[in-house]
Amino acid sequence: MKNATLHIEIHISIRALTMFFLKTWRASAFGVYGYLNFTRNGFLEHSKKFQPEDMQMRIEGKNCIVTGANSGIGFATAEGLASRGATVYLVCRNKERGEAALSKIQSSTGNQNVHLEICNLSSISEIKSFASRFSSKDVPVHVLVNNAGVLEQKRVTTSEGFELNFAVNVLGNFATTELMLPLLEKAAPDARVITISSGGMYTAPLTNDLQMSSDGNFDGLEQYARNKRVQVALTEKWADMYKNKGIGFYSMHPGWAETPGVAKSLPGFNKRSFICCPFPHYKCTAGFREISELVKRVQTQLYGWLYSLKRSWYLVVSTLIGLKHLNT
Ligand SMILES: NC(=O)c1ccc[n+]([C@@H]2O[C@H](COP(=O)([O-])OP(=O)(O)OC[C@H]3O[C@@H](n4cnc5c(N)ncnc54)[C@H](O)[C@@H]3O)[C@@H](O)[C@H]2O)c1
């Protein structure tokens, strides 16, 4: 338009720009790192270091608690522990889903020492009553797996007034661990607390705005990342406090696993993650078995080469951009 003047006012604070840059950088670096380490390829590569004797270890007589055990990683963990002979307590929020998981695990492992405890881990009062019920059994707890977790995209407040992601991932985790400490102490020096955090924590720094309440714009993914970062920070504190008391504290990232939780909270990510594993699952019938095995071997070899190639490239890039800063 003739003589038209376009006035654009841009108000960008240096702080906002820096935050945006840092966020983008963290997300990209995490994406590259995750692609190499958290996909099926990464798992196959890392699993070469697993020791067969560790994988077959029997743990009869050990009492293990797994939270969020009716689904995904929690279910697999509980089933794995039960198959190695442990006494397992499944802590689940929903009675029907918990009972279904209980009977599946009992029948797949043949282990009848698997029990169900109902507790909504977003509620401190429910956690307290679970802990007091459980403590009356007076059994040592050898392993506590803090697995239950949630990624709620909208800001939901629990009946006790806490933001939901924070309530389950941080507060629930914290309260369960603290209230189980006397029973964990009974199992010392053989007690462990394992918290399932997430590599997603690399996308957010540690913050004291625990319930993401100060900025008005709630971002569920960011809140989840912050929560997972807090879990690791708490684990480090506990590890330090209990290092001479026979309780080991560990946090871990399970890799990118296809679970009901991921399908619900991150459906886009769930579909995209297949790009990292472009080869289809094998559902071979007897006639195709041999040829399929051959193809599988070739693919594994190719994966190995590609993996080494990607890894060298990643090492060069990460050295250049100082990726180790993701740890802060
Ligand atoms: N799947 C992945 O790729 C992935 C990656 C990194 C970390 N994780 C972590 O692994 C853990 C398990 O996740 P998943 O992928 O198996 O998801 P999932 O949704 O299949 O399992 C989560 C479990 O937590 C339980 N849970 C949620 N809120 C609860 C509450 N208020 N009270 C009691 N139980 C509750 C659910 O019922 C479910 O059993 C989570 O802590 C998650 O953050 C998963």
UniProtKB/TrEMBL annotation:
The lineage of its organism: Eukaryota, Viridiplantae, Streptophyta, Embryophyta, Tracheophyta. InterPro entries: NAD(P)-bd_dom_sf, SDR_fam, SDR_member_12. This is Dehydrogenase/reductase SDR family member 12 isoform X2.
